[in-house]
Amino acid sequence: MQENHSYASLIDKLDLREFIASFEEFFARKKPIHLEGDRFVFGRFIAELDTIDFTPPPKINPLDTQILHLKKIGVLKLEEIFEFIKIIRYFGYLKSLAQIPKDSHLCTYLQKIEIPPALWDLMKVFEPNGQIKAGIYAELDSLEQAICRQKAQISKTLSEILSSQKLSAYFVDKQIHYINGNETLLLKAGFHHAISGIVISRSQGGFFYLLPQAIHSVHQKISELNEKLQICVYEICKNISAILGKQVRFLDFINKEFDKFDHLQARVFFAKAYNLEFVINKPTGKAIVLKDFSHPALSHPKPISIDFSANLLMITGVNAGGKTMLLKSILTSVFLSKHLLPMKINAFHSKIPHFKNLAAIISDPQNSKNDISTFAGRMVDFSKILTQEDILIGIDEIELGTDADEGSSLYKVLLEFLLDKNAKIIITTHHKRLAALMAQDGRIQMCAAIFNEERQLPTYEFLHGSIGKSYAFETAKRYGIPENLIKKAKEVYGKDKERLNELIEKSAQLEISLKQKACALEAKIDQYERKKTEQQDLITKLENDYAKEKSLLQRTYQEALNQLKQTIKDKEISDIHRNIHHANKILNTLKKQDEIFKTTPIPKKEIKIGDRIKYGSNKGVVVAKNGDICQIQLDEGMKLKIEAKKLKLIGNFANNPHQVAPRVHFQNPKNANVSLDLHGYRAEEAIEKLDIFLSDALIAGFDEVMVYHGIGTGKLAFAIKEFLSKHPKVLGFCDAPPQMGGFGAKIIKL
Question: 0.70 cut: is pTM over it?
Fold first, then answer.
C-alpha cells in the first residue's frame, strides 16, 4: 500500500498493517487499496463475482508510462507490448465466460467493452508466454531457425572433436567446460599439433581451457544472426507500436478498467481464501450493528456483538478488560466496510453505515522528537477534527495526560460540541466524573467492561447502560502487588484528599528543581564538549605542523644536495669544502628542530563505540568496532566501515540532545573505484572488503560497479551473492558479460 494516503496512519493505529498486506498480495498489479466510484455498484459486482468460477488475472506491470510513450509516437519493447496484450486477452476471456448470467450487472458491464478488431488481431501474434508465434513473420522465423542450426552445429562439432583419435592423448577429461559462456575443452600441453583454438583460461593443475576455432567461428555467426534478429524484432515492435498508437485512447481506458476489475477480483479471492464476508448493505441511519465481529489482528478472538445506535458510546470499566480492542474493532469494521474489504463477521445480521471521515486518537503523542506533552498532543488532534463533517471518532483513554476534574469539564464541552455537529464518537475512560456528567445526555450510550470478582479476572464482555468500575486494586493484586500494600492503599483511598494540593505543589517544586539541575548539567556538558573539541583541534594542528616541518626538511635536504652537486661541477675544491660545511650546518640545524618536534608529545585517544567522529567532512557515531576497523553511522543515516586512523574524535552529539544536527556534505573518498578484485580471498575477508568497497562507491556516487570473484569451487561466489541479496543499498546484480568476466564477476547496481 502506498503510504501517502490519508488512511495509512489509521491502518497502523487500528493494527491492520498485516491484514492489509495479506490482501494486497491478491492484486495483479500494485495499487492503493481504496476504490474510486460508487461502492454499492461495486458491491453488486463483488456479489456476482462471488457466485462464479473464474481465473484471476496474470501479474501485470504498470503501463501509464508506456501509454504516454505511445501518445508521443514512441516505440515500445516487445515485453511492454505483451503487457497490453495480457490485459486485452484477459478481458476477452471474461467476455467469453458462459457462467456469467446474461441479466447480471457484470455481464452488462463487460459487453459494453468493445475491443477493436486491430487489437484482436494482435493477440493472435503472441504465444501465451509472450513469444511471437511462428509463421507470422518470415524473416524472424528464418533468423531463429538459422540460430538453431548454428547451435546444433556447435553440438555436432563438439561431438566430432571429442571422438577425435588425434586429440585423445591431450584430453584431461571429455567434459564440456563453460567458461564465460563459451564451450571449452580441458587439454594438456602440446595440443597445438592436434587442434587450433583460443585458450580462455588455465586450470589450477596447469591445464588449458581451449575454445576450438570451429566453435568460435560458429559463435561469431550466431552473434551476427542475433544482431539481425534484434533489428528484425525492433521493426516488428515499431509496426505494432504504430497500431497501438492508433488505439491509445482505448488502451488508456482498458488499462484503468483493468485496475478497477483487479480491485474487485482481489477482494473476492481474498475473502474466499480466509473465509471472510462483505458488509455491503445500505443502512438508512448511522447506527452501527455488529454481530460476531472479530478483529483481524487477534489470533483467537472473542467475537464482538454490539448495537451502537446512539451518537456517543462511552466504554468504562476494568483495566485490561478489552475496552481499547472494542473501540478498535468498531472503527475497524467501519474502515473495512468503507473500502469494501471483507472481514470476520455475521454479515446478514450486521449493519455498518458509511462515514466520509474516520479519526482515531489512540496512541500517546508524546515523544522525544515532537517536544509535545501528552495532553497538548491530544488537544492538537482534537483541533483537527472539530471542523470535520460526517465523521466517526475513536478516542482511547480520553483522560490521558491531564487533571481529572479539569479534564472532565473540558472534554464534556468538546464532546457536546461534536455531538451537536452529528459526529459519531466512541471513547474509553476511567473518568467517573466525566461519565457522571454525561450520563444524563440522551445521546450517550454507556458500556462497561465486566469483571469477574470471584475469579478476579476480566471477562472481556460488556454490560450496556452502566458505568464500570476500574478495579485498580484487584488488577494490581493480579499482577503481583503484595496484599499488605493493597490493603494500605484501600485505607488511604478516600482519606486525606486535602493533601492532594500539597502533593501537586511539591511535584511542581520538584519539577522546577529538576529543570534547574538539568540546565546546569547541560551547561557542564557543553563546556566539556568544547574542551574536548579544542583538544582534538590542537592534536590536528600539531599533526599538520609536524607534516609541514617534515616536508620542509625533505625539501631543504634536497636543495643542499643539489647545491653540493653543482659545486662539484663548477667550483674549486676550496669552494666545495666551504659549501659542504654550509650544507652540513643547515642539515644539523634542521635535524635539531626535527628532534625537538618529535619529542613534543601528541596526545592520542583510542576511538571507542559511541564516540562522535569526523571522517573527511562527514560526521557520525561509532556503532561497532573490530580491531582497527570501525563501523560508523553518518548523521545522514549511511553506515561505513573505516580504519580507525582515518577518523577524528569530535564532541559527542548524543550527550547534547539540544544541539542542532550538522548538515553533512559528502566528498568522494580517494580510494573509491568502480571495480574490486577478490581473487584469492577467503569468504569472510572478501565480504569485509566488499562492504568497504560498496560504502566508498556509494559516497562517490557510483550507480554501477563490478566485482571479480572468479569461479573456483563456487563458495566465494555464493557468499558474495548472499551478501549482495541482503545489502540495503544494492538495487540488483547480475553476472558480467563473457568479455568482462562472465560467471566469475558481478555487475552491481547501487
Answer: no
